[in-house]
Amino acid sequence: MLILVANLGSTSFKYRLFRMDASGGEVIAKGGYERVTDYAEVIDETLASLQRDGIIASAEAIDAVGFKTVLGKNLSGCVMADQAVIDALDGFTAVAPAHNPPYAAGIRQFAKSLPKARLVALFETAFYQWATDASATYAVPASWRDIGIRRYGFHGASHKFIAERSAELCGREDVAEIARRLYLDGPQSVTGTPLRVVSCHLGGSSSVTGIRNGVAIGSSMGFSPQSGLPQNNRVGELDSGAIPYAMRTLGISLDEAERQLTKESGLLGLSGVSNDMRDLYVAAAAGNPAAQLALDTLVHSIRHWTGAFHFELGGLDALVFTAGIGENGVAIRAAVCRGLEPFGIHLDAAKNAACAATEALISTDTSAVKILVIPANEELVLAREVFRKLS
Ligand code: ADP
User: Fold this and answer.
1) What topology does CATH give the domain 171-378?
2) Which residue lies with its CA nearest to atom 7 of ligand 1?
3) What is the pTM of this model?
4) Backbone angle region of 339, left / alpha / beta, with phi > 0 → left and psi within -120 to 50 → alpha
5) What is the tens place of the pLDDT at every residue in 197-245?
6) I want to staple 323 with a disulfide (CB 3.0 to 4.6 A). Which of 129, 203, 315, 379 is the partner?
7) Measured from the CB, is residue 363 less than 6 Å from ligand 1?
8) Backbone conformation region of residue 138, classed left if phi is above 0, alpha if psi is from -120 to 50, else beta
9) Please, what sign has the CA dihedral across residues 10, 15, 21, 26?
């Protein structure tokens, strides 16, 4: 089965074409476009280039398209990407304004460009379906909860890949079967020694997720992608009391407060320099205290959430770093692990320094907790879930 996984940003379009069968799959083509203003144009160009390069004989050869949709109103899981998905995305545009409109537009366009292909959406929130009500609930009035205000959690496909790959690297192939039983039979089916993982997806946007036996118990991200760790331009965690106070004191409107919290906050807002870690390291090394504070605040927040899940999981078997900062950030990984030896977390400084964007075990041989770097591969999770859904 040929499955095109479409990654749609507000100005970008990236894709990977997978050939999938029951034993797994492989990427047979990938590519993308930046500064996109018209999805129809780039989708048609993608289909044409795949034919020009001899990868597919015709556009009809593509059996399915998978979409990594973020947040739907009253909808999650892995579902056919039909009008109900578009309505669910539109229903929560205000919560995920950078993410939902491109996916709604992309699904509409693929339905036109590839009318015979089956379109499937895997919501980022689906990985959190087994998180307990207690972990997912905000203490707000019932009327707020009734309109969908709760902790959802995001980066689901990325953390699910980490859940699967870390289980393999920990020699726990049984975890895939445990997770499968859980999905089929519910939580009561899960017995035996749990595998406890904390997954740190640190990139342009970042989140920390606790995982027991391949299943998420919760995430640092809550109602919107605007929560948890400081993001590149987005604020992350913020006391709800700060917003009305800032609006009244600074005399700014709700729209302006929202703009500042999404566009001028996070690493950029803290440092005043950049939203990119590479620039922050250069600035901090040159003695810029604001850049140093941005780095320290990110580390503090990663440790805060790692500690919370470590405790809730009742211990830890693996601590995993993934995505741009997690895969490349030697200093960030060292700072996160500093002083955690009493918890059995022993980073091997040489292995950490040698690891850049490759899969690696970076803990010492005697560390009770495995510290792993695993390159992100959310597209593979998409392709697998689409294949499973359609088979
Ligand atoms: P996105 O979340 O947008 O998909 P990535 O996961 O690719 O992004 O992460 C991008 C971020 O990774 C950059 O903004 C930068 O902060 C960080 N990054 C990339 N390369 C390095 C590096 N060599 N060292 C430290 N951080 C890096």
Assistant:
1) Nucleotidyltransferase; domain 5 (3.30.420)
2) 324
3) 0.94
4) left
5) 999 999 999 999 999 988 899 999 999 999 999 999 999 999 999 999 9
6) 203
7) no
8) beta
9) negative
